[in-house]
Amino acid sequence: MSNKVLIQNNQKAVKVPTGIKLLIRRSCNAVLVNEGFEEDCEVSVTFVDNEEIAQLNGDFRNKPQPTDVLSFPLGEEDTYDVDQDTGAILLGDIVISLEKAMEQADLYGHSLQREVAFLTVHSMYHLLGYDHENGGREAQIMREKEEQVLSKLGLQRTFTYGQDIE
Question: What's the pTM?
Fold first, then answer.
């Protein structure tokens, strides 16, 4: 299995921490291994600031405010575009607001690295067709899978989602 994770930084609001690109690659690969995804594939990850992600969120989800991560899957119902030159499956694009990730890391009391790893894992599951928007069992399955991967990466969470943060 050969996976390509293309990472670019399109923001200046937050200094990109050393080692974060390797962590993102490890996070993407851990999701693919966890899902038994064996084909060669390609994912793009882009860092932006709150202003740019608010613009994208407005354009694509009609919610013109900053969010932490956006996923742009290129596949539909297990059918993906393929890079004609390499034969790699194009899973899609992940856009992370490093500014928002920093705010959330501070809020939740963990490192920026852990927050970026979570956002990457979360987004990878969206690229693979998982969804949590409707809540219920589907959201629970997605959360459990995210936790499995983060545990394998040594990044278990220290709080539960939905708990009140004071």
Answer: 0.90
